[in-house]
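Self-study notes.
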Amino acid sequence: MARKKKGDPVHGWLVLDKPVGLTSTQALSRVKRLFNAQKAGHGGTLDPLASGVLPIAFGEATKTVSYAMEGAKRYLFTLRWGQATETDDTEGAVVAESLERPGRAEIEAALPPFIGEIEQTPPRYSAVKLQGERAYDLARGGVDFELKTRRVEVFGLTLADLPDADHAAFDLHCGKGVYVRSLARDLGERLGCHAHVTALRRTAVGAFTEKASISLDSLEALGHSPAAFEQLLAIETALDDIPALALSEAEALSLKRGQSVSLLSRLYKERVTDLDLEVGDVICAMAKGKPVALVRYEGGSLSPVRVLNL
């Protein structure tokens, strides 16, 4: 006899404005408990010192988390010139100092090399694994190690403000895997003055934006109420960049059974042409206005990748 799952079958996305001081896992636990949800996960970790957009998936939406994490991200961050720290943020001890302070023209002239596809080395205090161990555990244990560079993409990086000689604020638009702390560290090195992050706020993850977010305090004030559930977004919100194709109920049922659906009819050929699909593309199959499954286009058919049981 199957064990009954604890909690309620909640499905959808919540855009949480995570506060400073909580890990993403701690924030997730509090929200999951508030909704009494059977299953929940988040779409992209934020460090305890960072605030902002933390997409939280409930139920069947957890099957789309990987697609949410692939989305472009936006950050606002502030760095302090003149100091390098162990962790590249305010948590670590200062390991190097400089009296040099760059001006606006110098800063803006240094930004172009950090835009586009760049090679970036993750911070030593990061969750990157090295021979099965987390880098931050090795660093805390005093182990001498080197991390390999990674190729990441920065779509835009602009100087937003210069509040004083010691600090500068930036607006960042980037792809998956970019470390803001590494960006600050490397920018400080390029300008010959060292730097570390003092404040970080994520304002968007793919289709999830700051405008649609709700603070943890506001959410907890709503409690387990209809008003709290009104904050939930549809599962397909995370699939904003993925093409959608409407299917019949019979075809949707086939996908739910793990069977492929043929696209050889003239009707589907025309619709596939309109979607400009290529073999291997993942699309969202819809029926009666609801997502049925994430499917892979195989040329003459659709094969189920993740079935959504709604």
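Second protein, same conventions, sequence then structure:
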Amino acid sequence: MLVLAAALVGYVGPARAETPPTVNLTLKDHRFTPDKVTVPAGQRIRIELANEDAASEEFDSDDLHVERDVTPHGKVVFEIGPLKPGAYSFMGELHADTATGQIVAETAR
């Protein structure tokens, strides 16, 4: 038992994954704010979407392979990526004429 305790003295446990960078999006009047976001390429990204409208919406992106429902005055949190450098479109599927946006992944300089 003493040998096991001595072996564990330097053990700090498994490495914790870092929280990915967070992008805050707001949906109001069936429009995303901001409607264009730049993020670092090669990393997972956390999206926090708050819906300030009285109607449901669906965050939808074929480019990002994501569909997430957000209730009226609700919030949804999800992760995307890691993304290769480039531009990725998204929309609010229920109000696609006004609820549009883009995420641009850039390599650090």
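Instructor comment on the second fold: Residues 1-9 have pLDDT under 50 and may be disordered.
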